[in-house]
Write a structure and sequence with these properties.
The protein is mostly beta strands. Helix content is about 15%, strand content about 40%.
Length: about 400
Protein backbone atom coordinates (compact mmCIF):
# COMPACT_ATOMS: atom_id res chain seq x y z
CA UNK A 1 0.00 0.00 0.00
CA UNK A 2 2.81 2.37 0.89
CA UNK A 3 4.58 1.84 -2.42
CA UNK A 4 1.38 2.49 -4.37
CA UNK A 5 0.66 5.69 -2.44
CA UNK A 6 4.26 6.82 -2.95
CA UNK A 7 3.99 6.25 -6.71
CA UNK A 8 0.72 8.14 -6.92
CA UNK A 9 2.12 11.00 -4.85
CA UNK A 10 5.28 11.25 -6.95
CA UNK A 11 3.31 11.27 -10.23
CA UNK A 12 1.35 14.31 -9.09
CA UNK A 13 4.57 16.35 -9.07
CA UNK A 14 5.77 15.37 -12.54
CA UNK A 15 5.01 18.08 -15.12
CA UNK A 16 2.70 16.95 -17.90
CA UNK A 17 5.22 17.72 -20.63
CA UNK A 18 7.90 15.61 -18.93
CA UNK A 19 5.45 12.79 -18.27
CA UNK A 20 4.37 12.86 -21.89
CA UNK A 21 7.98 12.66 -23.12
CA UNK A 22 8.44 9.48 -21.11
CA UNK A 23 5.13 7.77 -21.91
CA UNK A 24 5.18 8.32 -25.68
CA UNK A 25 8.30 6.13 -25.78
CA UNK A 26 6.71 2.99 -24.35
CA UNK A 27 6.26 0.21 -26.95
CA UNK A 28 3.10 0.60 -29.08
CA UNK A 29 1.65 -2.70 -27.91
CA UNK A 30 -2.06 -2.87 -27.01
CA UNK A 31 -1.28 -3.74 -23.38
CA UNK A 32 1.48 -1.28 -22.47
CA UNK A 33 -0.63 1.82 -21.96
CA UNK A 34 -3.30 -0.18 -20.16
CA UNK A 35 -0.74 -1.42 -17.65
CA UNK A 36 0.72 2.05 -17.16
CA UNK A 37 -2.71 3.58 -16.60
CA UNK A 38 -3.33 1.19 -13.70
CA UNK A 39 -0.45 2.62 -11.66
CA UNK A 40 -2.46 5.54 -10.33
CA UNK A 41 -5.42 7.80 -11.11
CA UNK A 42 -3.14 10.56 -12.39
CA UNK A 43 -1.56 8.31 -15.01
CA UNK A 44 -4.95 6.91 -15.95
CA UNK A 45 -6.31 10.42 -16.51
CA UNK A 46 -3.23 11.54 -18.45
CA UNK A 47 -3.09 8.48 -20.74
CA UNK A 48 -6.82 8.72 -21.40
CA UNK A 49 -6.48 12.29 -22.65
CA UNK A 50 -6.99 12.97 -26.36
CA UNK A 51 -3.79 15.01 -26.64
CA UNK A 52 -1.60 12.23 -25.30
CA UNK A 53 -3.16 9.68 -27.68
CA UNK A 54 -2.41 11.99 -30.60
CA UNK A 55 1.17 12.51 -29.42
CA UNK A 56 1.63 8.76 -28.90
CA UNK A 57 0.47 7.92 -32.42
CA UNK A 58 2.51 10.71 -33.98
CA UNK A 59 5.67 9.53 -32.20
CA UNK A 60 5.37 5.87 -33.17
CA UNK A 61 4.14 6.46 -36.71
CA UNK A 62 7.55 7.95 -37.50
CA UNK A 63 9.38 4.67 -36.94
CA UNK A 64 6.94 1.86 -36.14
CA UNK A 65 4.28 0.39 -38.44
CA UNK A 66 0.93 -0.48 -36.89
CA UNK A 67 1.09 -3.85 -35.11
CA UNK A 68 -0.79 -6.90 -36.36
CA UNK A 69 -3.58 -7.33 -33.81
CA UNK A 70 -5.23 -10.41 -35.27
CA UNK A 71 -7.36 -11.76 -38.09
CA UNK A 72 -10.92 -11.45 -39.21
CA UNK A 73 -12.18 -14.65 -40.84
CA UNK A 74 -15.17 -16.21 -42.58
CA UNK A 75 -16.09 -19.08 -40.23
CA UNK A 76 -19.45 -18.05 -38.81
CA UNK A 77 -19.65 -21.12 -36.58
CA UNK A 78 -17.09 -19.54 -34.21
CA UNK A 79 -18.23 -17.16 -31.42
CA UNK A 80 -17.09 -14.09 -33.38
CA UNK A 81 -15.28 -13.11 -36.56
CA UNK A 82 -11.97 -12.09 -34.94
CA UNK A 83 -8.98 -14.12 -33.76
CA UNK A 84 -6.46 -12.05 -31.74
CA UNK A 85 -2.78 -12.91 -31.76
CA UNK A 86 -0.18 -12.51 -29.04
CA UNK A 87 0.66 -14.63 -26.05
CA UNK A 88 -0.70 -18.17 -26.34
CA UNK A 89 -2.61 -17.68 -23.10
CA UNK A 90 -6.05 -16.45 -24.12
CA UNK A 91 -6.34 -14.43 -20.90
CA UNK A 92 -3.04 -12.62 -21.39
CA UNK A 93 -3.19 -8.81 -21.33
CA UNK A 94 -0.90 -8.89 -24.38
CA UNK A 95 -3.86 -9.79 -26.58
CA UNK A 96 -6.64 -7.50 -27.72
CA UNK A 97 -10.11 -8.67 -26.80
CA UNK A 98 -11.84 -10.82 -29.41
CA UNK A 99 -15.18 -9.63 -28.03
CA UNK A 100 -14.16 -5.99 -28.49
CA UNK A 101 -13.49 -6.66 -32.18
CA UNK A 102 -16.71 -8.59 -32.77
CA UNK A 103 -18.73 -6.70 -35.42
CA UNK A 104 -21.96 -8.06 -33.86
CA UNK A 105 -23.72 -8.14 -37.25
CA UNK A 106 -24.95 -11.72 -37.46
CA UNK A 107 -24.62 -13.32 -40.84
CA UNK A 108 -22.57 -10.49 -42.32
CA UNK A 109 -19.53 -11.64 -44.30
CA UNK A 110 -16.08 -10.09 -43.90
CA UNK A 111 -14.80 -9.31 -47.41
CA UNK A 112 -11.74 -7.13 -46.80
CA UNK A 113 -9.49 -5.52 -44.17
CA UNK A 114 -7.01 -2.78 -44.99
CA UNK A 115 -5.63 0.53 -43.71
CA UNK A 116 -7.25 0.08 -40.28
CA UNK A 117 -10.76 -0.58 -41.64
CA UNK A 118 -12.83 -3.73 -42.11
CA UNK A 119 -15.41 -4.20 -44.88
CA UNK A 120 -18.42 -6.48 -44.34
CA UNK A 121 -21.29 -7.40 -46.64
CA UNK A 122 -24.85 -8.28 -45.62
CA UNK A 123 -26.22 -11.80 -46.21
CA UNK A 124 -28.35 -10.57 -49.14
CA UNK A 125 -25.26 -8.71 -50.50
CA UNK A 126 -27.06 -5.37 -50.86
CA UNK A 127 -25.53 -3.53 -47.88
CA UNK A 128 -21.98 -2.88 -46.74
CA UNK A 129 -20.48 -1.95 -43.38
CA UNK A 130 -17.23 -0.01 -43.27
CA UNK A 131 -15.96 -0.45 -39.72
CA UNK A 132 -12.99 1.04 -37.92
CA UNK A 133 -12.69 -1.25 -34.85
CA UNK A 134 -9.89 0.75 -33.20
CA UNK A 135 -11.77 4.05 -33.46
CA UNK A 136 -15.22 2.54 -32.91
CA UNK A 137 -16.67 4.02 -36.13
CA UNK A 138 -19.30 2.28 -38.27
CA UNK A 139 -20.80 3.38 -41.58
CA UNK A 140 -23.52 1.38 -43.30
CA UNK A 141 -23.72 1.81 -47.06
CA UNK A 142 -26.41 0.60 -49.42
CA UNK A 143 -25.12 -1.23 -52.48
CA UNK A 144 -25.23 0.52 -55.87
CA UNK A 145 -28.78 1.14 -57.17
CA UNK A 146 -28.47 -1.59 -59.81
CA UNK A 147 -28.00 -4.23 -57.12
CA UNK A 148 -30.83 -2.84 -55.00
CA UNK A 149 -33.21 -3.05 -57.96
CA UNK A 150 -32.33 -6.70 -58.46
CA UNK A 151 -32.94 -7.42 -54.79
CA UNK A 152 -36.35 -5.70 -54.87
CA UNK A 153 -37.25 -7.80 -57.90
CA UNK A 154 -36.39 -10.93 -55.89
CA UNK A 155 -33.81 -11.81 -58.53
CA UNK A 156 -31.48 -13.43 -56.03
CA UNK A 157 -30.28 -15.85 -58.69
CA UNK A 158 -28.86 -12.99 -60.73
CA UNK A 159 -25.12 -12.91 -61.48
CA UNK A 160 -24.64 -9.45 -59.96
CA UNK A 161 -26.02 -10.51 -56.59
CA UNK A 162 -24.28 -13.88 -56.56
CA UNK A 163 -20.88 -13.09 -58.04
CA UNK A 164 -19.30 -9.96 -56.65
CA UNK A 165 -16.49 -8.96 -54.33
CA UNK A 166 -15.28 -5.71 -52.83
CA UNK A 167 -12.35 -3.88 -51.24
CA UNK A 168 -11.85 -0.91 -48.93
CA UNK A 169 -8.86 1.42 -49.38
CA UNK A 170 -7.71 4.67 -47.86
CA UNK A 171 -8.35 7.51 -50.31
CA UNK A 172 -5.91 10.02 -48.81
CA UNK A 173 -3.18 11.21 -51.15
CA UNK A 174 0.31 9.93 -50.25
CA UNK A 175 2.46 12.49 -48.49
CA UNK A 176 4.69 13.11 -45.49
CA UNK A 177 3.42 11.08 -42.56
CA UNK A 178 1.03 9.07 -44.73
CA UNK A 179 3.27 6.92 -46.88
CA UNK A 180 2.55 3.65 -45.07
CA UNK A 181 -1.13 4.26 -44.14
CA UNK A 182 -0.25 3.97 -40.47
CA UNK A 183 -2.93 6.44 -39.37
CA UNK A 184 -5.96 6.38 -41.66
CA UNK A 185 -8.71 6.68 -39.06
CA UNK A 186 -9.64 10.25 -40.03
CA UNK A 187 -8.87 9.92 -43.74
CA UNK A 188 -11.43 9.56 -46.53
CA UNK A 189 -11.85 6.08 -47.95
CA UNK A 190 -13.17 4.32 -51.04
CA UNK A 191 -15.04 1.06 -51.49
CA UNK A 192 -14.55 -0.72 -54.81
CA UNK A 193 -17.18 -3.27 -55.81
CA UNK A 194 -16.70 -5.53 -58.83
CA UNK A 195 -19.75 -7.43 -60.03
CA UNK A 196 -20.95 -9.53 -62.94
CA UNK A 197 -24.32 -8.22 -64.18
CA UNK A 198 -24.29 -10.65 -67.12
CA UNK A 199 -22.08 -13.58 -68.15
CA UNK A 200 -18.97 -12.17 -69.78
CA UNK A 201 -19.41 -8.61 -68.46
CA UNK A 202 -17.76 -7.13 -65.38
CA UNK A 203 -18.58 -3.75 -63.84
CA UNK A 204 -16.65 -1.75 -61.22
CA UNK A 205 -18.42 0.63 -58.85
CA UNK A 206 -16.57 3.14 -56.67
CA UNK A 207 -17.99 4.54 -53.41
CA UNK A 208 -16.44 7.76 -52.10
CA UNK A 209 -16.81 8.58 -48.40
CA UNK A 210 -16.28 12.24 -49.28
CA UNK A 211 -19.17 12.31 -51.77
CA UNK A 212 -21.30 9.71 -50.02
CA UNK A 213 -22.36 7.99 -53.25
CA UNK A 214 -21.51 5.26 -55.76
CA UNK A 215 -20.37 5.77 -59.32
CA UNK A 216 -20.06 3.18 -62.07
CA UNK A 217 -16.47 3.81 -63.12
CA UNK A 218 -15.56 0.89 -65.42
CA UNK A 219 -17.09 -1.82 -67.58
CA UNK A 220 -15.18 -4.62 -69.24
CA UNK A 221 -16.45 -6.96 -71.94
CA UNK A 222 -15.03 -10.30 -70.90
CA UNK A 223 -17.11 -12.31 -73.35
CA UNK A 224 -14.12 -14.53 -74.09
CA UNK A 225 -14.36 -15.64 -70.46
CA UNK A 226 -18.12 -15.98 -70.17
CA UNK A 227 -17.82 -18.93 -67.79
CA UNK A 228 -15.69 -17.06 -65.27
CA UNK A 229 -17.07 -15.61 -62.05
CA UNK A 230 -15.52 -13.48 -59.33
CA UNK A 231 -14.34 -15.58 -56.40
CA UNK A 232 -14.74 -14.85 -52.70
CA UNK A 233 -10.96 -14.88 -52.18
CA UNK A 234 -9.34 -11.87 -50.41
CA UNK A 235 -8.38 -9.02 -52.73
CA UNK A 236 -4.73 -7.97 -53.06
CA UNK A 237 -3.55 -4.35 -53.39
CA UNK A 238 -0.24 -4.05 -55.24
CA UNK A 239 0.86 -0.46 -55.70
CA UNK A 240 -2.30 1.18 -57.09
CA UNK A 241 -4.03 -1.89 -58.50
CA UNK A 242 -6.56 -4.22 -56.86
CA UNK A 243 -6.52 -7.88 -57.87
CA UNK A 244 -9.23 -10.54 -57.51
CA UNK A 245 -9.12 -14.14 -58.69
CA UNK A 246 -11.70 -15.49 -61.11
CA UNK A 247 -12.95 -19.07 -61.15
CA UNK A 248 -14.72 -21.21 -63.72
CA UNK A 249 -18.38 -21.35 -62.81
CA UNK A 250 -18.66 -25.05 -63.54
CA UNK A 251 -15.46 -26.40 -61.99
CA UNK A 252 -14.40 -23.67 -59.49
CA UNK A 253 -10.86 -23.90 -60.89
CA UNK A 254 -9.08 -20.57 -61.10
CA UNK A 255 -7.49 -19.50 -64.35
CA UNK A 256 -7.55 -15.69 -64.42
CA UNK A 257 -6.97 -12.59 -62.32
CA UNK A 258 -9.19 -9.51 -62.51
CA UNK A 259 -7.35 -6.21 -62.11
CA UNK A 260 -8.73 -2.73 -61.35
CA UNK A 261 -6.45 0.30 -61.53
CA UNK A 262 -7.43 2.82 -58.82
CA UNK A 263 -5.94 5.72 -60.79
CA UNK A 264 -7.13 5.06 -64.34
CA UNK A 265 -10.27 3.06 -63.37
CA UNK A 266 -9.35 0.41 -65.92
CA UNK A 267 -10.55 -3.20 -65.66
CA UNK A 268 -8.55 -5.96 -67.33
CA UNK A 269 -7.71 -9.68 -67.15
CA UNK A 270 -4.40 -11.39 -66.45
CA UNK A 271 -4.04 -15.09 -67.18
CA UNK A 272 -2.60 -17.24 -64.39
CA UNK A 273 0.45 -19.44 -64.91
CA UNK A 274 -0.56 -22.44 -67.02
CA UNK A 275 1.57 -24.89 -65.04
CA UNK A 276 -0.24 -24.60 -61.72
CA UNK A 277 -1.40 -28.10 -60.89
CA UNK A 278 -4.89 -28.65 -59.49
CA UNK A 279 -5.21 -25.12 -58.13
CA UNK A 280 -8.72 -24.93 -56.74
CA UNK A 281 -10.46 -21.78 -55.56
CA UNK A 282 -9.31 -21.88 -51.94
CA UNK A 283 -5.75 -22.83 -52.85
CA UNK A 284 -4.66 -19.81 -54.90
CA UNK A 285 -4.04 -16.30 -53.56
CA UNK A 286 -2.83 -13.16 -55.34
CA UNK A 287 -0.14 -11.18 -53.50
CA UNK A 288 2.60 -8.60 -53.78
CA UNK A 289 6.09 -10.10 -53.97
CA UNK A 290 9.32 -9.06 -52.31
CA UNK A 291 10.83 -8.51 -55.75
CA UNK A 292 10.27 -4.80 -56.36
CA UNK A 293 6.58 -5.01 -55.52
CA UNK A 294 5.69 -7.18 -58.50
CA UNK A 295 2.42 -9.06 -58.76
CA UNK A 296 2.69 -12.58 -57.41
CA UNK A 297 0.58 -15.67 -56.96
CA UNK A 298 0.98 -18.34 -54.29
CA UNK A 299 -0.60 -21.71 -54.99
CA UNK A 300 -0.95 -24.86 -52.91
CA UNK A 301 -0.06 -27.79 -55.17
CA UNK A 302 -0.02 -31.20 -53.59
CA UNK A 303 1.68 -30.59 -50.26
CA UNK A 304 3.86 -27.76 -51.51
CA UNK A 305 3.56 -24.01 -51.90
CA UNK A 306 4.52 -22.42 -55.21
CA UNK A 307 5.32 -18.72 -55.51
CA UNK A 308 4.85 -17.31 -59.01
CA UNK A 309 5.95 -13.82 -60.10
CA UNK A 310 4.53 -11.90 -63.07
CA UNK A 311 7.63 -10.77 -64.94
CA UNK A 312 5.94 -9.17 -67.93
CA UNK A 313 2.46 -8.02 -68.92
CA UNK A 314 1.92 -5.87 -71.99
CA UNK A 315 -1.80 -5.22 -71.65
CA UNK A 316 -2.62 -7.36 -74.68
CA UNK A 317 -3.05 -10.68 -72.94
CA UNK A 318 0.60 -11.68 -73.02
CA UNK A 319 1.96 -12.73 -69.62
CA UNK A 320 5.33 -14.09 -68.62
CA UNK A 321 5.45 -15.84 -65.24
CA UNK A 322 8.35 -17.42 -63.37
CA UNK A 323 8.38 -19.61 -60.25
CA UNK A 324 11.31 -18.55 -58.01
CA UNK A 325 10.16 -20.43 -54.91
CA UNK A 326 8.63 -23.79 -54.00
CA UNK A 327 8.30 -25.01 -50.41
CA UNK A 328 7.58 -28.60 -49.40
CA UNK A 329 5.18 -28.70 -46.47
CA UNK A 330 6.89 -31.83 -45.19
CA UNK A 331 10.09 -29.82 -44.77
CA UNK A 332 8.21 -27.49 -42.43
CA UNK A 333 6.61 -30.38 -40.53
CA UNK A 334 3.16 -29.11 -41.52
CA UNK A 335 1.86 -32.21 -43.25
CA UNK A 336 -0.95 -33.90 -41.30
CA UNK A 337 -0.16 -37.30 -39.84
CA UNK A 338 -1.03 -40.06 -42.27
CA UNK A 339 -1.68 -37.61 -45.13
CA UNK A 340 -1.33 -38.47 -48.79
CA UNK A 341 -0.24 -36.30 -51.68
CA UNK A 342 -3.65 -34.79 -52.41
CA UNK A 343 -3.70 -31.08 -53.12
CA UNK A 344 -6.83 -30.49 -51.03
CA UNK A 345 -4.96 -31.06 -47.76
CA UNK A 346 -3.55 -27.52 -47.77
CA UNK A 347 -5.60 -24.33 -47.95
CA UNK A 348 -4.17 -20.86 -48.43
CA UNK A 349 -6.11 -18.45 -46.22
CA UNK A 350 -4.37 -15.15 -46.84
CA UNK A 351 -1.09 -13.32 -47.30
CA UNK A 352 0.44 -10.42 -45.40
CA UNK A 353 2.86 -8.05 -47.06
CA UNK A 354 5.20 -9.46 -49.65
CA UNK A 355 6.45 -12.67 -48.07
CA UNK A 356 4.16 -14.12 -45.40
CA UNK A 357 1.40 -16.62 -46.20
CA UNK A 358 -1.13 -18.18 -43.83
CA UNK A 359 -1.99 -21.80 -44.57
CA UNK A 360 -4.43 -24.27 -43.07
CA UNK A 361 -3.78 -27.98 -42.69
CA UNK A 362 -5.41 -30.60 -40.55
CA UNK A 363 -2.77 -29.76 -37.94
CA UNK A 364 -3.87 -26.11 -37.64
CA UNK A 365 -3.30 -22.68 -39.19
CA UNK A 366 0.32 -21.61 -39.63
CA UNK A 367 2.28 -18.52 -40.64
CA UNK A 368 4.97 -19.28 -43.24
CA UNK A 369 7.73 -17.04 -44.58
CA UNK A 370 7.92 -17.88 -48.29
CA UNK A 371 11.36 -16.39 -48.86
CA UNK A 372 13.13 -18.01 -45.91
CA UNK A 373 11.37 -21.40 -45.98
CA UNK A 374 10.52 -20.62 -42.37
CA UNK A 375 7.60 -21.73 -40.23
CA UNK A 376 7.12 -18.64 -38.06
CA UNK A 377 4.32 -19.76 -35.73
CA UNK A 378 1.13 -21.70 -35.28
CA UNK A 379 -1.82 -19.30 -35.16
CA UNK A 380 -4.71 -21.48 -34.00
CA UNK A 381 -6.66 -24.65 -34.71
CA UNK A 382 -7.91 -25.21 -38.25
CA UNK A 383 -11.65 -24.82 -37.56
CA UNK A 384 -13.55 -24.32 -40.86
CA UNK A 385 -11.80 -21.08 -41.80
CA UNK A 386 -11.46 -20.54 -45.55
CA UNK A 387 -10.05 -17.00 -45.60
CA UNK A 388 -8.04 -14.72 -43.28
CA UNK A 389 -8.09 -10.91 -43.27
CA UNK A 390 -5.14 -9.55 -41.25
CA UNK A 391 -5.95 -6.46 -39.19
CA UNK A 392 -3.27 -3.88 -38.34
CA UNK A 393 -3.81 -0.76 -36.27
CA UNK A 394 -2.62 1.20 -33.27
CA UNK A 395 -5.17 0.41 -30.58
CA UNK A 396 -5.64 1.54 -26.99
CA UNK A 397 -7.36 -1.01 -24.81
CA UNK A 398 -10.58 0.40 -23.39
CA UNK A 399 -10.97 3.00 -26.12
CA UNK A 400 -12.38 2.90 -29.61
CA UNK A 401 -13.74 -0.59 -30.15
CA UNK A 402 -17.19 -1.20 -28.67
Amino acid sequence: MGSSMSTAHSMEHVPDDALGEVLVRVPPHPATLARASLACKGLHRFIGGAQFRRDFQAHHHKSTPPPLLGFFHDDQSLPNNFLPIGDDDGDSPDRVSAAAFDPKDLGWRVVDSRHGRVLLQSPDRVRFLVWDPAAGRRLYINAPPAMLQLQLAAANHHFMLRYNNAAVVCAAAPGPGHLDHSDCHDCPFSVVLVATPDPGTTVAYLYSSELGLWNEVATADLSISSWLRISDRPVALVRNVLYWTLVHQSSCVQSSILAFDLHTHRLYLIEQPVYIFDAEEENVQVMETAEDGLLGLVAACGLSLQLWVLREYNGRGTERWSMPRQIDMYDLALAPIGSTHHFDLVWILSVEGSRVVFVRTEAGIFEVDLWNDLLKRRICDAYDIQAFYPYKSFYYRGTGAP
